[in-house]
Amino acid sequence: MIAVTGLTGHSGSFLLRQFIDNGYKGKIRCLVRSSTKTDKLKASGLDIEIFPGDIQSLEDLSRFVDGANTVIHIAGIWRTLKLLEAISRTDSVRHVILVHTTGIYSKHKMASDEYKEIEAGMQKYLDMGMNITILRPTMIFGDMRDHNISKFIKLVAKLPVLPEIDHGAGLIQPVNARDLGQAYYKAAMVEKLPQLSYNISGERELSVHELMELIAKYMGKKARFVSLPMGLGVFGAKSVKLLSGGRVDLVEKVLRLGEDRNFSHADATRDFGYEPAPFNEGLEREVKEFLQQRKA
Is the pTM of this model over 0.85? Predict the structure, then answer.
């Protein structure tokens, strides 16, 4: 049995599609809140047990993982340690797959310290011999529900002149949520992987400038840019933060625009066959979705 947290979420919904497309015959237990809509789970044709529970409750998590052979945790790095504690109380789980983030590598991201603390707290479970695999997605995109590329799309649609930091030279490698579903599924089909962690990135790297140009191209509009040096961009963000009384804090976001966030997925390809789809195809699909929604 595979127990999954976050199966009804953004990338989790594409793991569900992988189960369906691959004709998975085993039992799947899905942790859901009492308010979660489960129509897609019930209509999947899979052997799914819907398990209502509170992901913050150690008692609920202990009952949720009991009897599972594989656990896939998609529902947030902040719940990892409590989930691992629950898993340590059962002897059935042979493989734990944790979906964390490449944000842990950032020199600017304030939360990266928290991510590092959480992963440091995992050490005692590794010392116990728990078989853990960490998957680290890059910037996730795929449809207008994402909180990354969708913001760039709205920006290109709204502004006649696009501001960029240092000519948009910062490198990114966004990963399509559809590809994440593939990565989760393929990693779960291997009981023991040779590495503790794997970066899960998109097909290729590109600059922020190229990303904006592609979005404009798929919208059928001419992209015009104005480049600001990082120092001026940070000054502007700090000014906005000061004038808003701290309510609008864009400083970290501006800093990260100048930070390369491209990571190779070669290890994941080698060890469990991860193969992301062409980036441009996914981006064009998302831009078309935005344009259709705007017409509606």
Answer: yes
